[in-house]
């Protein structure tokens, strides 16, 4: 009999809720993908390179124009300098980048710190490499990190810390004080930072995105993992990347070459050309802030409580003052009864802690957002 390496893992909640939404023809604000298409100009660029014969294997590290464009964006927007030849790698989605980075640094028995609620790929990637997830749980509604609690979780076996900023699902955006605190804790350790920054261009209210790689004491330790799919509304293209110092990139690439080897060629060339116009990514924050504001303003008529998200395209709401119903049961009931699908936030905790919260994705068209908010506002508790 085959013994499972991930015995506790089943069908993801995202598949479950999207399936339920389809079955009941509900407004799907559960799974985190845009409900609208990308810029037609970007689609035309893909067609241009497909018709132009750019259809064979790309280099393992990514096509040179895309690596150069990613390096140029990193320095112009965030002041981060990376050599496109030795320190920039294109991956088949950010999840692959995260897995390759963790695989490069984790040995059996190593501990890896995770801030939860957390994206569901982190712990399995650690466990598949023989590592041990160590959980830190900031408290809502602000979800600011208690660095005294973090210090209590650090040990001689700490080998990596997973950073996610802007944070899914809470929307928390790390501050300079957070980076300083992390740098101080890691200074005496042989430990690495795996930084999930897929929402790097989606922060609100003029709050800047700060990568751990921007800290002088952290850059040499940091694998910066990002997603062009998230930035340009093309999540199905699965184009991610990893920026890391040369020595880290060399180990990262050893893993990457045996995971996917290379990523779809014409799409890489299209994105490289599209990145040549900075407006294409510099306007993303304003685009999503308008959607966040539209959605939360409409939700003010509801009985839910919430703090507007600082970043990402997710908004959490609380209902514990209204009901003690399990969040999974409520998410299912709302999908069936009023036709609005969400994600129960308990699924992002390793012990399925139920804080009576639901997560809604506002990367949808305005009509859907307003209709969803209206249905939620009509709820009788």
UniProtKB/TrEMBL annotation:
Cofactor entry: pyridoxal 5'-phosphate
GO CC entries: cytoplasm
Ranges of residues in domain Aminotransferase class I/classII large: 27-376
Keyword terms of this UniProt record: Aminotransferase, Pyridoxal phosphate, Transferase
A molecular function (GO) term: kynurenine-oxoglutarate transaminase activity
Record Pfam families: Aminotran_1_2
Annotated family: Belongs to the class-I pyridoxal-phosphate-dependent aminotransferase family.
Record's protein name: 2-keto-4-methylthiobutyrate aminotransferase apoenzyme
Organism of this sequence: Siphonobacter aquaeclarae
Taxonomic lineage from the root: Bacteria, Pseudomonadati, Bacteroidota, Cytophagia, Cytophagales
